[in-house]
Amino acid sequence: MRLILLGAPGAGKGTVAKLLTQIDGSVQISTGDILRGAVQAGTELGKQADAYMKAGDLVPDDLIMGIMETRLQEPDCAKGFLLDGFPRTIPQAEALKVLLNKLGIKLDVVANIEVPREEILNRLTTRRTCSNTSCQAIYNVRSNPPKVAGVCDKCGSPVIQRDDETDEAISKRLDTYFEKTAPLIEFYRQEGLLLVVDSPASEGVVDAIQQRIAAGA
Ligand code: ADP
Ligand code: ZN
């Protein structure tokens, strides 16, 4: 499947993407994970992205498009891909449209995961992430804690609160989402690709997406 997952930070895009990859081997492409990996590895890209990310600001569109142009042409994308956290702005969506046309790729669906703002705030302040950049497993101190507090179940690395998950950075990220990313909902509605899902559980979101793809819409 070839799809875009839209939704505010904390809407569960990453969790839904992971579930979907298990269905047909499509790869999850998370620009956030790629950027955090680059920051930790100290690459040139990481150096350029770091300050924006810490502040809860978006990384400039040209850096992101450079990453995506390369990533979408890697062989593992042939089976399909789930874009998680990209596009984030109208210019990114427009550039993606041009890029996909050039590569001869057609999207199946753009799923917008709708979650009420209070629930988003709740989830983000209690979210914890594995510090190992090749793992990046996600936990929640209330609803899904690691078996041993502070230690990743999958790889044993420390489980931490991300730099951009302080209260201040979270509220900045939400403002940025409503201002820059929410307009993509209308953009993709006009493209005829939008599916709105408001299931509270990730499994429900996955079912709705599968049904839509099966219907061939
Ligand atoms: P979340 O969806 O939880 O906000 P991500 O992991 O998707 O977090 O992104 C973390 C940060 O990485 C963002 O706040 C932003 O600084 C940067 N980022 C990720 N994807 C993009 C993108 N497509 N465009 C611009 N910045 C991005
Ligand atoms: Zn881990």
TrEMBL record:
User: Which reaction does this enzyme catalyse, per its entry?
Assistant: AMP + ATP = 2 ADP
Q: What GO molecular function terms would the record report?
A: AMP kinase activity
Q: Which CDD domains match?
A: ADK (cd01428)
* Region annotation (NMP) ranges: 30-59
Q: Name one Pfam family in it.
A: ADK
Q: How does it associate, per the subunit comment?
A: Monomer.
**NCBIfam families per record:** adk, PRK00279.1-2, PRK00279.1-3, PRK14527.1
Q: What is the protein name given in its UniProt record? A: Adenylate kinase
Organism for this UniProt entry? Candidatus Competibacter phosphatis
